[in-house]
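Loading example: each entry is read as two labelled lines plus one structure line.
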Amino acid sequence: MGKKKSEVYSIEVNGIKDIETTNEEDGKEKCKGLKNHLGCEKKPQKEELKKELDLVDHKLNSKELEDKYGTNIIRGLTSTKAAEILAQDGPNALSPPKQTSEIIKFLKQMVGGFSILLWAGAVLCWIAYGIQLSQDKSASMNNVFLGVVLALVVILTGIFAYYQEAKSTNIIASFSKMIPRQALVIRDGEKKEIPAEQLVVGDIVEIKGGDQIPADIRILTSHGCKVDNSSLTGESDPQSRSCDFTHENPLETKNIGFYSTTCLEGTATGMVINTGDRTIIGRIASLASGVGNEKTPIAIEIEHFVHIVAGVAVSLGVIFFIIAVSMKYPVLESIIFLIGIIVANVPEGLLAAVTVSLSLTAKRMAKKNCLVKNLEAVETLGSTSIICSDKTGTLTQNRMTVAHLWFDNQVYQADTSEDQKDQLFDQSSATWASLSKIVTLCNRAEFRPGQESVPIMKKIVMGDASETALLKFSEVTMGDVMERRKRNRKVAEIPFNSTNKFQLSIHETDDPNNKRFLLVMKGAPERILEKCSTIMINGREQPLDESNAEAFQTAYMELGGLGERVLGFCHLYLPEDEFPDTYPFDVEAMNFPTSNLCFVGLLSLIDPPRSTVPDAVAKCRSAGIKVIMVTGDHPITAKAIAKSVGIISANSETVEDIAKRLKVPVEQVNKREAKAAVVNGMELKEMSPEELDEVLINHTEIVFARTSPQQKLIIVEGCQRQDAVVAVTGDGVNDSPALKKADIGIAMGIAGSDAAKNAADMVLLDDNFASIVTGVEEGRLIFDNLKKTIAFTLTKNIAELCPFLIFIIAGVPLPIGTITILFIDLGTDIIPSIALAYEKAESDIMNRKPRHKKKDRLVNQQLALYSYLHIGMLQSLGAFLAYFTVYAEQGFRPAQLIFLRSEWEDDNINDLEDSYGQEWTRYQRNYLEWIGYTAFFVAIMVQQIADLIIRKTRKNSIFQQGLFRNKVIWIGIISQIIIALILSFGFGSVPILNFTRLRVQYWFVAVPYAIVIWLYDEFRKLLIRRYPGSWWDKNMYY
Amino acid sequence: MAALQEKKTCSQRMEEFRHYCWNSDTGQLLGRTLSKWVWISLYYVAFYVVMSGLFALAIYILMCTIDPYTPDYQDQLKSPGVTLRPDVYGERGLQIFYNVSDNTSWKDLTKTLHTFLSAYSPEAQEENINCSSGQYFIQKEFHAPNHTKFSCKFTADMLQNCSGLTDPNFGFEEGKPCFIIKMNRIVNFLPSNNNTAPRVDCTFLEKNHKDLGEPLEVDYYPSNGTFSLHYFPYYGKKAQPHYSNPLVAVKFLNIPKNKEVIIVCKIIAENVSFDNPHDPYEGKVEFKLRIQK
């Protein structure tokens, strides 16, 4: 059954299932464990996500291929034909993920958030004008003007938000535009270097070690070509590529090379069979990008907050509309009240301030190597509660390094830090001299020429990871390797291969007294030991007896147990009489001894952790963030690295460890006793979601080893089921579904593929785990600071709203105009609210748990109540005091003002009497009203200064925080004052803005209230600090 | 970015809301238990009582600092406004349109004048003293009864032909209507620094009436159309509870019939300005007049 279906191979690339083939021998589809709940039953629904890959090219021979693609294997395509196909198929590049069109983005800014409320206000203004116009031809243009202003406010803030958004998008766009790759192609019988984008199906390309494969190719000829398919399959072991058809499945067969995988060594020629989005990678990538972006936590918080404010605005507006109508105000006037209430309630400048704060943080994070693609992701990182991190490159340095040596029956430790400056092991032994010689000579890796000035550790090496490590190790410890190799000329060599598992070379020596050839060999320790009959101890050869072999075994096990890759080294001086100078060594015939060698020592290699990582992991732990390691590596290696960086802490054990300690079978151990867990990819495959949940809940220290990138997605989903905010790191193309699925996907800037970067929300420029932690810190800080910003901004809403309410209910002349309110919201308050983003953390934010995304809201009840009903009320009273002062000192005492409105606003009364019997014309009253607006405005401004200062902290006293530490706050305060002065004096004679000059003392009327606000808040903070957990703390701490 | 928000159905939301309103498990009403509500309400009551107290105190202090007789500042009252009786407003300011032959069209106008002048009847002015000095009536002390200052009498009969006593129709009937010009009161305001009394001067608005040829003929009552200086300064409502503004009546003699004219009456005095572009009623009053026949 399976055989019959094998003509067409379907790959499910819906990001949930492993890439799966149907040619299983048992003839039925395996639907086990995690996959079955998603894969099998749901197949029909998933049909649209499923893409079929019918690739048969690997089965065709060269002739058939030539026919199929109309090309010539020797001469390639003709340029004209290539151009034709290019025009037809399009360039060979992954089409970027579908962007929302700019217009849509712009319009979204125009109607998002509060904009819709303000639009409503503007439209109401125009309707009101329309009604006025129909009643009275000479209706004043005030309402039109206000409507225009409101519309302008919406448009300007929209443009601003759009601009900010576009700016941050541009950063990433410029980043992802990399140098165009070149491909070596044969066209018209000539080799040409062309941009890889111009490749077309049927092109014959040549690749060599180090190249990225430019398209899906069918290999035609190969010379020791090996590829790294890890970006596709997650398996990082090099795979050889040849022109033979070895497997029915195109993904398994050796004669297909996939786009974006890298050729590690060797050379090959191939025919392009798929380009661009039609490549396998292209299909996965386009699928992953098809998954829509969901809302970020901060977006939800802001939405929540907008809902609260809009709810308050609309319900107050409607309530007072009804009150106004039932108080016999004309409907028209009631509509105007409604507009005033809406404008007063909406913090017009807040969203802009939030955007700026976020982008400031994004900039700060970019400096610390976290490039944030989506502004809102800044905060997401702060609320992260689980980080699923890759091992290689993120936690580790991503280069094999010599970690331990074993010779003279002793284990020595090598320096594995980033620069490897201090190699402190004993180098006096004669055994070391021999060992170092083998390490230097039995090595095919070479430094790329022309890097004399580059530090050794940064030099680029041609060769595989282990050989590179050994080359650098010997360069560091012994000095110029290339020179020594020259002096010890290589006469024969057998490269490493997986069947014999050793590498051998024969050299002339540079010792003039010793004409013997030196045979050096390295390889898998047990294979090397088999070939030895003696062992070198302290420079002398001794027969390899039981005890020596035992010592070797112990050392081998010990180093292996550390998760290190162990290599054995041995040598043999070939007798001069049997092997004279001219002896023809033949590696095919092996006309030299390969047994009875002299064992010299072991070296073990590991990809060592980055030096900053253990600290960062510890920081995560104290910050309540669980770090889960997800790696494709062997469990032992994974566990060793996890232990060395602290993901598994020193004293915690896995179930297996407990079993070993208690000498009982694994099944008998109580799983809850084990803090740590190392889960194998195979085990994960068998687990049901419930079992995975159990693992995630019960163990605090988890390592997933031997996992495929697809399983990463399963792990992410598991974590999200625990209500965690999950950050995931990834670099391969196959990581992109997991990156998308995660709350915040972090792509590696150096090792990451474009697809991963596209799918991610953040790019880690230095691939360093520690950078994530600094990002978390910034994210938490901005959450706290946004709270402060919002609290600051919301407060004055009450002071802006109350005038309208009092105006409607008590009929006093209007204390503050709608336009004046806009000048507070978008004028004096903007810079201070942004300044709060610069506030330093109050306490160590990395010492508390991550916020619970459903319980710890950005705007909670306490914040709203405290801002609205406490400080906001105080502010209103202060502002009203200023208002009453102005009116009283100019002739209208408070009592007189009550219900004066209808006469006050009557254009036909030009001799309105005040409390002193003086008579006022309409214009004189109007001007007084504007003085009132200005005084009210100034009073709010003055109290907002106090508000700004108290919002610096939520718990600590201002003096603990330091009044002058955040200089930007002072810039904010000065800006408030200057803007107010400009408005009052600069436009004093322009009546349309309703600002007038003020007598000096009116600037200070609200100062006592500002002081009261500050004292009250200090009192609040004092009680919170004194009585944590008390009723006060619960109700007053926001 | 992952799905953080599960889609909730409407009924789920309603259920959640209901649960929020009354949570029977914890006895929470709108998120708080009853005792918690009592506590928080008590706190808010106390907080607002203290705040209101503070505000009341602040207002009290403000009122204490305010002079009951004169306002602290008269920033807007540098120059008095001027009003007209009868005052009928159209779309743009005052406009008095009537038909001589149609009684009803001007009855309301004369009624307005009668009502207005009723405050100037001898009975209404009884509390005030007779003045004839023609000089500023400066009173430093409170010599009048009840610790007040004296006010000068102004009675309707001083307006002679326009008093409504001799001609209850104020000349409307004959197309030579009377209008009353009133200057707004301002505490301690002196119209001029020397002893020139402020005078009313009515003309056709020049730019509109180049074609009229002959200037407006006006009879002013009291003669010369002056506000006698002994009505100044005004000491405020508290010091002069019975003070009434002096008036000037103007009788227009040559209003062209069936034609809309714009007349402006200015107060000519040293301290009265009539050129504020924003305030049409400062120091002058403009009105449209149209007499049908």
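The mean pLDDT of chain A is 82.
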